[in-house]
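Chain X:
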Amino acid sequence: MDLLLWRHAEAEDGIPDLKRKLTSRGEKQASQMAGWIRKHGPKNLRILASPALRCQQTAQALELSFDTDKRIGTDSNAASLLVAAGWPDGGEQSIRKNAVLVVGHQPTLGQTAALLLSGTEADWTVKKGALWWFSNRTRQGETQTVLRAVIPAEFG
């Protein structure tokens, strides 16, 4: 299974938090990264986005259908994100989809990345608009997590 963690692009400051929109710079970041994902990302991608407007707008840049999932919202944690994504097996969607893209927030994305790579949650930073791509595989009976790519927004 592949798991792609995409932090929402740059958004306006303000309240209410869930209604914050992307800035013009954020719209450009989302568009560039969406282009990179369409060109280089896995095919047959299941996309989950936080209900926050900035995540919805970031996901919309892909021009693909996506599901909104409260389990990856602003008050989420690494465990609920992994359950929503079905990591590491793909969950109920594994027959049709072997890759999940999560459009979410800090600190959850950084904590999830830390957990996947080190086995312990830590406050790692995923920059706005950036993408972290993980794969899960089994080698000689051992399950492994592989970091396939980290793409900052400006490289998208």
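Chain Y:
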Amino acid sequence: MFDRGLFLSLRGIRRQLAAMPHDLYLVRLIHHATRTAFPGERLWTAAQLGQESTVRFLRIRNREGCDVYLQPYADNRNAGYILLDLDHTDAATLELMRANGHQPCVVLQTSLGHLQAWIQVSAVCLEPAVATVIARQLAHTYRGDLASADWRHLGRLAGFTNQKPLRRQSNGYGPWVQLLHAQVGLATKGALLVRAAEQQIRCSPSTVSATGSLPGPLAGEWMVSASCTSSAACDIYQAWLQRLRIPQRFPHTDWSVADKWIAKELLRQGTPVAAVAELLRWGSPGFPRRHADPQDYLRRTLARALGELAGNAFPAPARGAHCVHEAGSS
């Protein structure tokens, strides 16, 4: 009997992998309700992933509540592919990417209005810091998800359903991850992105954080000096609120949490601690609010932000490892 669902999954997987060729792929199954990774072998060739038996296995796990994630695997380096997580985007954004020479080789619709784009910027593997710089640059430029902008973030695999409850359709089922575009090839300006990132690292080595991230080309617009005025601090704070989409994600904002997140982003980009403290002092809404000791509050907020930055590094996933990777938000 003809299995249409299996046929569509096979076609989507094969087309996606053909458009982003690599020797090995890391596949991770994460059960949405428990946030635990399914145990077992996770490194596959394209031929293995395209087999009916493999896809049948993945479809069963998907029906059991597992989201299916994928990444071209290069051990402790980036395979030359950058993931861009685009929420609430439209065709104009994709056209702008193509016009700028950042054309994706793969575009997935992970749910209505949510896209993921894979961009091949290099035919050879990249150092983590270089790939992270490029990922953050592209996320800044096209208003992608900054939380997904790093050197080894996993994207979704076509042909399976999105198990996130927030993405459920009106009929109660999860939406299919659909392949909208698949065309093998390097981005026209990919080499320029790599050279710019390498130059930025050479020129600003002190700004590398624990995760290897560096500010993108637009970061200067959101930096703050130690002599920042009250008006400028408010503008910069509000700009970062929008960059991190805090009001959209948390309508009833906890300003202490927002302060820490914004402080962490500025510290990540090499902003002096004293300058970040002044930004929070003059830019955080209603500050000092109900804090009995504002100076101590700033000190504790900056200490937490620095502590989280220092603890962000983690080892690359090993073959068969059972750790859970923070996958994309779409």
